[in-house]
Amino acid sequence: MTTTSANKQTKPAKTKGAGEVGAGPVWDWAAGHGPVTGALSATTGAWATATVGAATGMPPGWALAVGAAGAIGHTAAGLRLRNAGRTIAARAASWLVGAGWTTWAITHGPLTWAALGSLATIGVGIGTATRSTNLYEEAREAEALTAEQRQIAAELSAERREIAAEWAERVKRVCGIEVRILAVEKWPAGTGFTLDAELPGGVTYDKIAAHAAGLSADAHLPHGCTASASPGIHQGRTLIDVGTVNVLEQERTYPADYAPVSLMTGIPWGYRTNADDICVFLREQCALAVGPTGSGKTNLVHVILAGFARATDVLTWVIDLNAGSAGLPWVLPALESTEQGTPMRPGIDWLASTHAEAVLMLETALAIARHRKTAYQGLMRQHDTDLLPISPAIPQIELVIDEGAEILVSSDRRLKKLAEKILEVKRIARAMGVRTVLTALGATGSVLGNLLIRREAKVRVALTGGEVEGMDLSKMFPGSRGLRVEQAPYKGSGFMGTPESPAGLFKTWRILPSQISEIVAATSDRHPTLDAPSAKAAGEAYAKRWDAERIAWMRDPAHQPQQPTPAQTAEAEEQGSRRGLNLRALRNQPEDGQPSDPDELISQFRKQLDEFGADAIEQPARERTERPGLNLRALRENDTPAAGEGIEQEGPEWLAQALAAIRDAGRDGLKPSAVADLVGRSRQAVRDALKSAASRGELVYRDNGPHSVYVHPDHA
User: Fold this and answer.
1) pLDDT at position 149
2) How many CB atoms lie within 10 A of CB 571?
3) Residue 319: beta bridge partners?
4) Number of domains the chain contains
5) Residue 577: what pLDDT?
6) Where are the beta strands (DSSP E) in 320-366?
7) Which residues sit opposite 670 in a β-bridge?
8) Integer Cα distance of 522 and 387 in angstroms
9) Residues 388 and 328 in one domain
């Protein structure tokens, strides 16, 4: 009986498994047939049917009836599958021709050369027709798919053209600028789109950025969505990012993928309004994050620490004078695991919660930076760079200082010493891979008034939480326009700017305490170790940072580190400021063992004057060392220091920092106003001190009218 299995598609043969044995072709009896195997199957089936029918005397009309039924069935199937007319006709003809040959062969005999030759010809014809119809059907299917895609593209293109025309008219109406929209790109997350606009001659993107609020209001964008302009591919183009879905109001937890990251490829701190992650590159940059109470600043600190914990080339040192609360969640899981017999490394490398420990940490960081400058000269020459090649073998040290910006502007004497060391780390340790991340409670003039903070902290974050007081975004992001606190009223949201991307809206993830424990466990074997030269420079202060005595306060609340009370701090400052005579009675505060009679006090006062005066006259050439009491230098003779003796620096205590900054400025020097911003003093006081230093030869004054500067003698 004739069949038309030649019209079925061929399935790929199953490959032989690795465990199977034997050689030769592997037949897949469940597979369909192609043009060749299908034609061969049809002709052999027809010949076999004709041979059996002729031998048994089967009526010839039966073969013709079966062929007609097959033709009708395939025609119906082709119509249901919406095949082309030529495909249906070819399949029906195959059935009828095969049935006709079978009927003729039963009647005249299938074993003649005429029967065999005609059957071979029919087989070739069926194979050729099948191949032709298959190719035609594939072409029809591809054309239908292409047409569908063209229709979708046309619809999308029409939508984009509509968006482009709408926003071109809006920019003209709100900003007074005629722009030409060259492209519209929709964000993959479906939360907005980006317009690539060509600006008219002489117009910059700043004019559009200044009207961001007006454009957002005119477009009726949801709260938290903006239309912000940024530089384009060149200065005559601009990119306008338009958010249509407020992703800032959604709280997203920290991504559960704790995969390794690197300082060189960027560390994620949050996501933009287009739902893309925003990464920071801190190899050379410091960071500053500000946020009032309740804005999510502590959560951001934990997100920052999570990124550093995942990094394979970063060691994190944390300073938190508020009982170390920022770093404890990253240490306690490791301490608990050690007690349970499954030790793992903490998520941070060092934690300082007291002033003494913070000073020790900063001095260690400075010692490491200075030692690296000499120890790795050969390695830097080998890599032909002036920056230390950071890698897991030589990790970068990231100092995360919670509320560190407040330390830098504090008037407390103890914190001033700490601030000097933080500024020194910022100033000298960039090339050697020691950088800082500071946090503050607000973007105020006192925090941002220090030139060194602004110059080094190119990565800046302002968490607003809807708080307006103390949030001067113009100082935090100078040059950025159209930023308003009201745009980010949600906890954990705010603005972020990096050297790679302009300031714009962003939000950080919510990191849960359970996730912190998971990250500590997942990254325990990933943390690098301090390189040998740096460890040698760090000494025992670093090697014993996890000694039981130094971390006892972490394990037992009863061993909390002693913090000085305000009264003790005031008394210490008072004792440090008093030198020589004790005139406590003049403050109406009698002290035990001190006479309260004014006459007796005056007598003792005169007696001390006589003693100091006589002592000064008898020892005119002694070494000048600071001692308590009166300075009767005027009574000494030949007070000029001998050759080779050190000369004490005159002027205020901040003058040394100013002289160092002027020296680092090179031949350009610094204006008095810039020095005033650097040291946090009034301009008049700075002018007087610099003028006195110039008169002593410590500086050179270059008079150039309003551009006058002070230059160090080395560069004069």
Assistant:
1) 72
2) 12
3) 352, 401
4) 4
5) 43
6) 350-352
7) 710
8) 31
9) yes
Is 177 in contact with 208 (CB distance < 8 Å)?
yes
- Give the phi and the psi of residue 365 in degrees, each rounded to 5: -60, -40
Residues 6+ apart with CB under 8 A from 371: 533, 534, 536, 537
- Whole-model pTM: value is 0.61
> Residue 673 maps to which CATH number?
1.10.10.10
Q: What is the 3-state secondary structure (H, E, C) of 37-79?
A: HHHHHHHHHHHHHHHHHHHHCCCHHHHHHHHHHHHHHHHHHHH
Q: What is the DSSP string of 676-706?
A: HHHHT--HHHHHHHHHHHHHTTSSEEE--GG
Distance, CA of 60 to CA of 215 (rounded, Å) = 85
Distance, in Å, from the CA atom of 205 to the CA atom of 255, rounded to the nearest integer, reads 35
CA pair distance 450, 409, nearest whole angstrom: 8
Among candidate residues 186, 208, 243, the one where a domain is terminated: 243
Cα–Cα distance measured from residue 318 to residue 402, given in angstroms and rounded to the nearest whole number: 8
19-36 pLDDT tens trace? 444 444 545 555 566 667
Contact 491, 219 (CB under 8 A): no
Instruction: Check if the beta carbon of residue 302 is closer than 8 Å to that of residue 513.
Output: no
Work out the number of other CB atoms within 10 angstroms of the CB of residue 646: 7
Greater confidence (43 vs 387) lies with 387
Query: Encoding tokens for residue 200?
Result: 């008219």
Question: Which domain does 238 fall in, by range?
Answer: 177-243
Residue type, 217: A
Tens digit of each residue's pLDDT (9 = 90 or more) over 445-496: 667 767 788 888 899 999 987 666 767 788 888 877 777 888 888 889 989 9
Domain annotation covers residue 258: no
Q: What does the alpha-carbon distance between residue 597 and residue 580 come to, in Å, rounded to a whole number?
A: 20
